[in-house]
């Protein structure tokens, strides 16, 4: 069900692939067999991060999440499978472990670990950023060697001249990404660098 937009961006009706500039791309995949959503994470991801995503996923769907290593896709596959259900998972890869959020309730990560996870979580992108990332690839491929500042200026002018229907489409994409982001990171709170450094905001700001 995955569709490709440009060279790097992949999106489905249920999720998205984060652009390469982010450390850990995540794919939401609809399983026709289980009629459920699975999550794919690169096999190069650190195990604590895979467990962290599985815990959040388990909390969201309110059931255990089994993690498999899919060698063909080179991904970890996170699958919500209720207790007592034994679906055919032969195509999912090698079983690794199960994460059940109910079993880790009350667990408190250290501030250092919490900060590391927050650092890894990308902010959801707005309509302009989504548009710019897709169009920048097109403009750059059509104008090899063009400076980044010139590319940004061209895309900015393109955005200003787009009709309301096009802008509405990208707004829908941004809203979809925001929903997916809340699904994956229900406890996420954006903090500015000023706040993270413990500084008080300037008066009137």
Automatic annotation (TrEMBL):
<keyword id="KW-0539">Nucleus</keyword>
<dbReference type="GO" id="GO:0001228">
    <property type="term" value="F:DNA-binding transcription activator activity, RNA polymerase II-specific"/>
</dbReference>
<dbReference type="InterPro" id="IPR050140">
    <property type="entry name" value="SRY-related_HMG-box_TF-like"/>
</dbReference>
<dbReference type="InterPro" id="IPR009071">
    <property type="entry name" value="HMG_box_dom"/>
</dbReference>
<keyword id="KW-0805">Transcription regulation</keyword>
<protein>
    <submittedName>
        <fullName>Mating type MAT1-1-3</fullName>
    </submittedName>
</protein>
<dbReference type="Pfam" id="PF00505">
    <property type="entry name" value="HMG_box"/>
</dbReference>
<dbReference type="GO" id="GO:0030154">
    <property type="term" value="P:cell differentiation"/>
</dbReference>
<dbReference type="InterPro" id="IPR036910">
    <property type="entry name" value="HMG_box_dom_sf"/>
</dbReference>
<keyword id="KW-0238">DNA-binding</keyword>
<feature type="DNA-binding region" description="HMG box">
    <location>
        <begin position="121"/>
        <end position="189"/>
    </location>
</feature>
<keyword id="KW-0804">Transcription</keyword>
<feature type="domain" description="HMG box">
    <location>
        <begin position="121"/>
        <end position="189"/>
    </location>
</feature>
<dbReference type="GO" id="GO:0005634">
    <property type="term" value="C:nucleus"/>
</dbReference>
<dbReference type="GO" id="GO:0000978">
    <property type="term" value="F:RNA polymerase II cis-regulatory region sequence-specific DNA binding"/>
</dbReference>
């Amino acid at each position: 069900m995955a569709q490709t937009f440009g060279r790097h961006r992949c999106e489905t009706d249920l999720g998205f692939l984060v652009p390469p500039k982010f450390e850990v791309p995540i794919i939401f995949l609809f399983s026709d067999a289980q009629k459920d959503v699975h999550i794919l994470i690169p096999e190069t991801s650190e195990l604590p991060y895979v467990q962290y995503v599985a815990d959040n996923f388990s909390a969201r769907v309110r059931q255990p999440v089994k993690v498999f290593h899919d060698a063909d896709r080179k991904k970890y596959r996170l699958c919500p499978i209720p207790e007592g259900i034994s679906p055919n998972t032969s195509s999912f890869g090698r079983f690794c472990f199960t994460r059940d959020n109910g079993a880790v309730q009350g667990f408190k990560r250290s501030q250092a670990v919490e900060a590391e996870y927050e650092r890894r979580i990308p902010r959801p992108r707005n309509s302009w950023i989504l548009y710019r990332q897709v169009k920048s690839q097109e403009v750059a491929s059509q104008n090899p060697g063009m400076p980044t500042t010139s590319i940004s200026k061209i895309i900015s002018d393109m955005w200003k001249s787009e009709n309301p229907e096009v802008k509405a489409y990208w707004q829908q994409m941004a809203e979809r990404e925001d929903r997916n982001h809340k699904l994956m990171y229900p406890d996420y709170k954006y903090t500015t660098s000023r706040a993270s450094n413990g500084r008080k905001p300037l008066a009137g700001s």
